[in-house]
Amino acid sequence: MVDTLSYWVLPVTVTVTVLFGLYKRVKVFDCFMEGAKKGLHTVYELLPSITGLVVAVTMLKASGALTIFSEVFAPLADKLNIPSEVIPMALISPVSGGGSMTFFEQVLKEHGPDSFLGQVASVLMGSTDTTLYAVTVYYSAIGIRNTRHTLYAGLLADFTTFLLASFFVRMTLY
Fold first, then answer.
1. Burial state string for 121-145 with b = 16 or more CB within 10 A and e = fewer than 16
2. Are 57 and 92 in contact (CB under 8 A)?
3. What's the rounded Cα separation, in Å, for the pair 94 and 45?
4. How many CB atoms lie within 10 A of CB 32?
5. Which of 101, 118, 95 is nearest to 49 (CA)?
6. What whole-number distance in Å separates Cα of residue 155 and Cα of residue 14?
7. Are residues 98 and 133 in contact, defined by beta-carbon separation less than 8 angstroms?
8. What is the pLDDT tens value at each position of the chain, 174 positions in all?
9. At 142, phi and psi to the nearest 5?
């Protein structure tokens, strides 16, 4: 039933939208074309920011800097009872969702989703955000240059999640 419903959601939504537009005497195709033009313009404006983030993530991985940072933070993570295997995921998560997904999949393949490490990685994956990506893309799309407290609050939330993920997973095991 759910699979059948998911196939129909998009066609039904588009059909209802077009019919409602026709009912309200709106030039539906003209509105669609105007929205498509604005969308392409937005992509054009966001392309430098996205390109910069992709290059930065690629350089972090290829240069070995991510491994070095992980090794630097490993003793602190051990003292806090945080598995060191999730450090790369926590470091890359604020920058790249795809990059953190790569590390997440690696943890699940090596340790399994039901292991303590798999559960901690799952909590991190579900609780953190691509903070730098979101601030860069969304703020540049609307022309905001001063992020004020947004960046600090987002990074603090990501760090708090990193600190508390293994604590809460441990709580559920006992």
1. bbbbbebbbbbbbebbbebeeeeee
2. yes
3. 22
4. 13
5. 95
6. 38
7. no
8. 567 778 899 999 999 999 999 999 999 999 999 999 998 988 888 788 778 877 887 888 889 888 899 999 999 999 988 999 999 999 888 888 888 888 899 999 999 999 999 999 999 999 888 888 888 778 877 888 888 898 899 999 999 999 999 999 999 877
9. -110, 10
DSSP the chain: -HHHHHHHHHHHHHHHHHHHHHHTT--HHHHHHHHHHHHHHHHHHHHHHHHHHHHHHHHHHHHSHHHHHHHHHHHHHHHTT--GGGHHHHHHTTT-HHHHHHHHHHHHHHH-TTSHHHHHHHHHHHH---HHHHHHHHHHHTT----TTHHHHHHHHHHHHHHHHHHHHHHHH-
Distance CA 71, CA 133 (A): 24
Q: Which two tokens stand for residue 118?
A: 């798999």
